[in-house]
Prior knowledge:
Elements (H helix, E strand, L loop, with lengths): L2 H7 L7 H15 L6 H8 L3 H7 L11 H13 L7 H12 L7 H13 L4 H23 L6 H23 L5 H11 L1 H11 L5
Amino acid sequence: MSRHEKAAKKPPQQVSIEAIEKVALELFDTRGFNETSVDDIAAAAGIARRTFFRYFESKNNILFGGFGTLLRNLEEWLESAPDDRPMFEVITDAVLRFNRVHSDGPAAHRARMRLILQTPALRANAALRHAEWMAVVARFAARRMDAPADAFGPQLAAHVSLAASNAAYEQWLRDESSDLAELVHRAFSMAPILRELEASMATGQLS
């Protein structure tokens, strides 16, 4: 068998989702999201275009890698909390765990979130993920309030929780010396509406 025949039979190099994400983030940072194509990412990662689509449905989905797993974890964290623990205290802790900085480090995580929050082409994708996130929180709040998930109380709890999380993220992006976990905790503790919601729940005013 010739050297060329042996090379042709060599199995393709394996690549991880994390490796593709890292390459893509570097390209987005240097070239811009809109200016980077799937072909650019595939070439930089050393894979074929068709291999890229085995991992991701589109370029837009790269920045939301692992979101489904995190969402399932969020629901489990909320479900496992003791029933006598205040609802927003449970949500705060779950959100802190959900928003824990990725293993690729704070700089890469900040770059990822800046792209998600500030790139117009990604807003539709982000809106879909936000809706899924709020649905999980609303289901938890609904069980605590003994109300349907689409009732006013659970929906308000979900929207307020998302707003607090987004406010923390936006401040974290503006101030690189800040700590994301601290900002998330502050956002929830500083929102007076949360205490009012808890009080309304106790008196049965929300359903």
